Amino acid sequence: MPRVSVIVPCFNEQATIQLLLEAIYTQTYRRDDIEVIIADGMSEDQTRQRIAEFQVRHPDLDIQVVDNPRRNIPAGLNCAIRAAQGEIIIRLDAHCMPRPDYIIGCISALEQGKGDNVGGVWEIQPGGAGWQARAIAVAAAHPLGVGDASYRYTETAQQVDTVPFGAYRRSLVEKIGFYDENLLTNEDYEFNVRVRQSGGTVWLDPAIRSAYFARDTLIGLIRQYARYGHWKARMLRRYPGTLRWRQALPPAFVASVLISGLLALFFPIFGVLFVIELCAYALILLLAGFSSAWKHSDPALVPGVPLAIASMHLAWGSAFLWSIFVR
């Protein structure tokens, strides 16, 4: 069996790092063939202490911590890859929990030649106990919120443009290079662009699954999606042909609202169009809220899901436009 290096960038993840390590420890893959490389961005909480406590309790799992002084995700991933000894690299995050068969599923897909980089589906979990956290978790897996991002909900194995995390042979990094440290977000997508440009395949297998903890407040969600939108625009300057419809819709919607609202000051017809657009958007979101509340038997989702989806759209779209035209 090939040796596997699980690489994990992290910063201030004291709440979830042990959950991840427990999930890795209980993998069905042979434990002696697993090493875990955690690239810590000089955490200021108890993250390193929690890792050390886990190491004491589980000395049979090879866990190494390397410093990531740049404190960003792609730099951490690259630090971990350089320290890794495995033939197979599996990238995970400190706020996820892979299923017990996650590693064996990745290895199987790679050995069957399904893809050069393979990944699975996120099972989005609330990041907290409140109504906002529950609504965000539902919105983050709703097609209205994430479009055709198949890794959020699909049940069909398929070739895709990107996967969350990803598993690949070390030789792939030697072929296409490390993660781009100039992109503080969207580093996975950019990596997968280079996989596809090199003639490789990115493969999504829904049998490979992990729980992912979403943000727990709307403010946190807005910050997250604003960061996504900003760095997506930066990435598209280099790869304009990679823009997908799901990525174009939020900035197009924000732009249309701004333009019609501005023109409404001078032409009454645009005022009518402005109101119609906003009412139609609100109605669609409310329908999503009611259907989600019915499906999950949770009345709080009626206002919560629309608020979460609107936060995602507006934050992503506004930051994207700002990055394109202002910065």
Tell me about this structure:
The protein is an alpha/beta fold. The chain has 2 domains: 4-216, Spore Coat Polysaccharide Biosynthesis Protein SpsA, Chain A (Alpha-Beta Complex), CATH 3.90.550.10; 234-325, no CATH class. The protein contains 12 helices and 9 strands. The chain has a 5-stranded mixed β-sheet with strand order 3-2-1-4-8. Strands 5, 6, 7 and 9 form a 4-stranded mixed β-sheet that branches. Helix 5 (131-139) packs across helix 12 (301-325) and helix 10 crosses helix 12 (301-325). It is globular and about 70 Å long.
Write a concise keyword list for the protein shown above.
globular, 51% helix, five-stranded mixed β-sheet, four-stranded mixed β-sheet, Spore Coat Polysaccharide Biosynthesis Protein SpsA, Chain A, 327 residues
Report the total helices. 12
The termini sit apart by: 49 Å
Per the CATH scheme, the topology name of the largest domain is: Spore Coat Polysaccharide Biosynthesis Protein SpsA, Chain A
What fraction of residues sit in β-strands? 15-25%
CATH architecture of the largest domain: Alpha-Beta Complex
**Biggest beta sheet attributes:** 5 strands, mixed
Number of strands: 9
Helical coverage, percent range: 40-55%
How many separate domains? 2
Q: Low-confidence runs (pLDDT<50, min 5 residues)? A: none
Strand order within the widest sheet?
3-2-1-4-8
Helix/strand class: alpha/beta
Q: What gross morphology would you assign?
A: globular
